[in-house]
User: What shape does this take?
Amino acid sequence: MQSFVISGKASTVFRLIKLKAKREEVKLRTSIVSMNPVVSSNIAAVGYDGEVQTLYVQFHPSMKTYKYFNVPVDVYDSFLGADSKGKFFASNIRGKYEYSQI
Assistant: This one.
């Protein structure tokens, strides 16, 4: 396997690969949380780490990802199954769980 070092500014290809990876997966500890794309005008993708009950939500159009702590798995399952992800988020998650931006 060939290795190399990019000096100065990262190449455009490197930045695009990094952005794509960030959108699809969030690194947590030594594991990776898979982000599931959803159909929503406000929410791009959601993921869940059941070991620590942490919900990950990536928003349109900024593509910023936030993690919400101590979210039960049934809330995550209901979120995925909701007809309107934005409405579910607003009424069942926002303001109810501590969070931080990744």
